[in-house]
Amino acid sequence: MGYAQLVIGPSGSGKSTYCSSLHQHCESIRRTMHIVNLDPAAEVFNYPVAMDIRELVTVEDVMEQLKCGPNDGLMRCMEYPFLLTLIAFKHFDSLYNWLDEELENFADADYLVFDCPGQIEIFTHVPVLKNFVEHLKQKNFNVCAVYLLDSQFVSDVPKFISGCMVSLSAMIQLELPHVNILSKMDLLPDKSNIEEYLDPEPRTLLSELNERMAPQFAKLNKALIELVEEYSMVRFTPLDLRKEKSIQFVLSEIDKCIQFGEDSDVEIKELDEGMDQLEL
Ligand SMILES: Nc1nc2c(ncn2[C@@H]2O[C@H](COP(=O)(O)OP(=O)(O)OP(=O)(O)O)[C@@H](O)[C@H]2O)c(=O)[nH]1
Ligand SMILES: [Mg+2]
């Protein structure tokens, strides 16, 4: 049985930084975790890259071959049929074969963290990520989507709701256990009303949204909030990378989600209790 986190979220929400902090944390507690780069446009890494999709395809290759721009290039890199065409000359059969071959190099590759590109279209517009997840599941991986949203979004209710909608869309498309993380907590100067956003009351969100938007949007706002309420998904776990306990707590939430370390229930329980004292 393998375990995997699929780290997704808008551009710049802190996915790669989270991966690197998580890796550091795991090194310090002597836990093995491999970080996989799934971003064909990535340039700099602050973590050891266990597997790198750029060995298979890069955005530059695609832009040059298909004469397209960087955003379109990334979509085409990721999109399965294009990938197949592109990689044919590289003697790879598919993205899946690449993964399978790479996995063979790791005897203990049982916990993988996939650092995904920020283009949300890879899970909203094309089935590539969904298919990739299915392949991982077939290989006996328990997979969880980890959606990061920048804490700066909470200062702006319409932005926060749009971030929630993207998360919801990922949830529906990927059909995976899902953990929402509010990243970059160190950048939030005033944390006094943060609970309002971590586990928000839909009515409060609706009235704040109505206050911010023109009256003709009232009906739309209501529908959006009802959607959010219906899926009961607007629950975020805060993440402050400066605090080891915060990383530890986030990891324990994800571990629970993918049933990792079921034998170490005690450890997780202790962490839960520790969370009560966790300063936000
Ligand atoms: N203060 C602070 N800055 C952060 C944190 N996490 C990320 N950043 C900064 O936010 C920017 C984007 O972070 P990345 O980790 O590259 O974000 P990403 O989601 O991987 O971005 P893309 O791969 O482009 O989608 C960088 O300048 C980081 O240094 C955090 O917890 N606190
Ligand atoms: Mg990144």
Describe this protein's structure.
The chain is of the alpha/beta class and 280 residues long. The protein has helices at 15-28, 59-66, 70-78, 80-88, 95-104, 121-124, 128-138, 157-174, 195-198, 202-212, 218-230, 244-257, 265-276; strands spanning 2-8, 34-37, 49-52, 111-115, 141-150, 178-183, 236-238. Strands 3-2-4-1-5-6-7 form a 7-stranded parallel sheet, with helices on both faces. Helix 8 links the parallel strand 5 (141-150) and strand 6 (178-183). Bound molecules: guanosine-5'-triphosphate (GTP) and magnesium ion. Guanosine-5'-triphosphate binds at residues 9, 11-17, 39, 118, 183-184, 186-187, 241. Belongs to the GPN-loop GTPase family. This is GPN-loop GTPase 3.
Mean pLDDT figure: 83
How large a portion of the residues is in β-strands, by DSSP E? 5-15%
Secondary-structure content class: alpha/beta
Under CATH, the topology can be stated as Rossmann fold
Uncertain segments are: 84-92
- SSE order, one letter for each helix or strand: EHEEHHHHEHHEHEHHHEHH
CATH class: Alpha Beta
**CATH level-two architecture:** 3-Layer(aba) Sandwich
Could you give the count of β-strands?
Answer: 7
- Tell me which ligands are bound: guanosine-5'-triphosphate, magnesium ion
Biggest β-sheet, characterized? 7 strands, parallel
Task: Please give the radius of gyration in angstroms.
Answer: 19 Å
Roughly how much helix do the residues carry, as a percent range?
40-55%
InterPro entries: Gpn, Gpn3, P-loop_NTPase
Keywords: GTP-binding, Hydrolase, Nucleotide-binding
Pfam families: ATP_bind_1 (PF03029)
Organism: Thlaspi arvense (Field penny-cress)
